[in-house]
Amino acid sequence: MIVDRLDLFGESALRVLALAYRELPEGMALSAMEDVERDLTFVGLVAMLDPPRPEVPDAVVRCRKAGIKTVMITGDNRRTALAIARAIGMVRGENAAVLEGHQVEAMRDEELRVALEEPEVLFARMTPTQKMRVVSILKEMGNVVAVTGDGVNDAPALKKADIGIAMGIEGTDVAKEAADIVLLDDNFATIVNAVEEGRAVYENIRKFVTYILASNIPELVPYLASVIFRVPLLLTVVQILGVDLGTDMFPALGLGAEPPDAQTMDRPPRSREERLLSLPLLVRAYLFLGPIEAAAAVGGGLWYLADRGWEWGVGLPQGSPLYRQATTVAFAAIVLCQVANVFACRSPRVSSFSLPLFTNRLLLWGVAVELFILGLIVYHPLGHRVFGTAAFDGRFWLFLLVFAAFLLLAEETRKGLIRRYACGRSLRYQEGTA
Questions:
Q1: CA 128, CA 64: separation in Å to the nearest integer?
Q2: Which in 187, 284, 363, 420 has the greatest CB count within 10 A?
Q3: Which of 221, 213, 219, 209 lies closest to 241, judged by CA?
Q4: Contact 78, 125 (CB under 8 A)
Q5: Which of 265, 275, 271 is nearest to 198 (CA)?
């Protein structure tokens, strides 16, 4: 009867305590607890409800979509653990594996690995040593393991994990000392939000780097063209500094504040071996975006010279008004292409035209400042003295805008091909697993 009631409480996701007593002779000295806690008279059961926060089920779903596997390791009995897991959506199937501590103790490491590879697995009645063993096996399987806990018995697992997360409100001092992070609100959903924010920060760094590296090619190509093809040098050192330290700086800061896109938590975790400066990033910056900007800079400068009567192979004094105008055209071409590039770099996959424009006001302010600085350098006398520029014929702005639009459209085409390839690969995977 008692066991039946205990099972009923457990299946209702209740934590249960059994109460019992024993009368001791007056004045009897208490010996070891093992000697005292025997011959007890059962009094009853106390069932306690500790419901999960309402946002936890959604957080579990987000983890699953993000490729993060959640595993429950608890000291509660198996029925309570399974009921709670079903309530929060951690378990959806009818035949979820629930292993108790004594079963884990009898399993070899190979058997435990097989159990952990199951899509849904729970651990109940676990001791601190058994919890730490599960964490160790998960790490040996190549996983990055984060452990949450609040009690003294969670401390070994918190210490063993790659990331130990202790509860800040209910957590014991021992758990907090063993953990790497203290969660101030004791909310699992906060951890999932932090994962999303961390992914967004990493992606923003890559966007920032792509944007900055792309402008290196148009800064280098004019020097190579001058040496190889014997044409006037279409960009001065001071103008390169104007791009790197002036116009590029503010939009790049805006990219660093780009909010997470809607698909951030729909992608699996990146590999540990993946580098920040990956080959696809360098190819995109140096062999795709950069050459387009270089073509705009060199093509714009040479076209301006040819339009003003310059002939191939004829020298051009660097202090002449025509030379200063030609370098200004090349400089403006780079800046305008970088304006298009900053919008293209907001996402490496999602179309720039589908991203809300006003979700990143810092980026818009950065572009506005960039264009303002460009106007000062092209038209203001102070800009002319500092950067060696000169105002050029206004109809050439149209030529430069065409190149900027071409860069954006070329990047949109690349993104479209990537999305089409990813969609096709996903469909082939689904057909293969059906």
A1: 26
A2: 363
A3: 219
A4: yes
A5: 265
Q: Is 394 helix (H, G, I), strand (E, B) or coil?
A: coil
Lowest mean pLDDT among 85-99, 135-149, 378-392, 405-419: 85-99
Q: Which amino acid is at 88?
A: I
Residue 133 one-letter amino acid: R
Q: Where are the beta strands (DSSP E) in 289-429?
A: none
Phi-psi region of 48 (alpha: psi -120 to 50; beta: other; left: phi over 0): beta
Query: Do 176 and 168 form a contact (C-beta atoms < 8 A)?
Result: yes
The bridge status of strand 97-100 relative to strand 14-21 is unpaired
Q: For residue 359, what are its two tokens? A: 């979700």
Q: Are 127 and 103 in contact (CB under 8 A)?
A: no
Render pLDDT for 342-363 as a digit per residue (tens, 0 to 9): 999 999 888 999 999 899 999 9
Burial profile 197-214: b = 16 or more Cβ within 10 angstroms, e = fewer: eebbeebbebbbbbbbbb
Taken in order of first residue, the domains within the chain and their CATH numbers are 2-49 (no CATH), 56-191 (3.40.50.1000), 200-433 (1.20.1110.10)
Please, are residues 67 and 267 in contact by the beta-carbon 8 Å criterion?
yes
CA pair distance 162, 179, nearest whole angstrom: 10
Provide CB contacts within 8 A for 351, sequence distance 6+.
412, 415, 416
Report the C-alpha gap between 170 and 189 in whole angstroms: 16
* 144 within 8 A of 162, measured Cβ to Cβ: yes
In the chain, how many H helices and how many E strands?
19, 8
Beta-bridged to residue 41, according to DSSP, are 21
d(Cα 238, Cα 198) in Å, to the nearest integer? Answer: 37
pLDDT in tens, 202-228: 999 999 999 999 999 999 999 999 999
pLDDT at 134 over 90: yes
User: Band of the pLDDT at 425, cuts 50, 70, 90?
Assistant: low
